Amino acid sequence: MPFHKETFDRIPPDKRDHIFTIAVSEFAMSGYAAASINQIARKAGISIGSMYSYFDSKEDLFLAVVDKGYELLERALKSQSREGSFREQLLELLLTAVEYADKHPDMNNLYLSLMTEELAPLSMRLSSQVEKISVTNYHEMLQVAKEKGELRQDLDIPMAAYLIDNNVLLLQLACSAGYHKYRLQHFMGSRAQDKAQLAAQLCDMIMRCLT
Fold it and tell me: Per-domain residue ranges for the chain?
């Protein structure tokens, strides 16, 4: 069920995208609690009355924005090739995560902010959707690779999927969140600057756990 009203669907796509862009920036800069729907409306060049004709509340606007981010993430994941070895697919997945975080840092940080206790009530309205994307994608990759003999035959697929997802999440954090960027730099030094190399090395570490 969408978090916006039907009136939002009836405005031009470029206007919808503009409202989302302003909202993403405001939520990322101020945080959910401090962000003002009035300020978002003003910066987007629309009246607060129009904003409330599109969304019932700031909560629904925030959820609609994050939902848009999930759509972009799902599109990126679905664009991945299913050709090649499991290692090649895993590396592509990690590079896709890096590219997404670099291209949509504010959106990525909004998604990550849903993991805090403060936004737990909101995350419950969305988590099943994004987790379904990840779980389905990882399980399919792992099952096919296991059947092809590329992975250990005693491999626990749900646990392996959880391992991969946690590493993808940490990699995205390291690419877009200030503290985690510093943390990566602290551990990896100058190697932290080369995200492609970092993804390749992480891929090799994961592969050693699965084979």
Answer: 66-210
Output the pTM of the full model: 0.78
Supply the CATH classification number for the domain 66-210: 1.10.357.10
Query: Do 61 and 23 touch, CB atoms closer than 8 A?
Result: yes
pLDDT in tens, 146-176: 999 999 999 999 999 999 988 988 888 787 7
Closest CA to 163 of 197, 184, 138, 186: 138
Q: What is the pLDDT of residue 84?
A: 87
- In this prediction, residue 136 carries a pLDDT of 81
Rounded Cα distance between 157 and 10, Å, is 44
Give the span between the Cα atoms of 6 and 179, in whole angstroms: 39
How far is residue 79 from each of residues 73, 75, 93, measured CA to CA in Å?
10, 6, 10
Query: Quick check: 126 and 70 in contact, CB under 8 A?
Result: yes
| Positions of the chain with pLDDT lower than 50, given as ranges | none
How far are the Cα atoms of 122, 123, 150 from residue 115, in angstroms, in the given order? 10, 7, 33
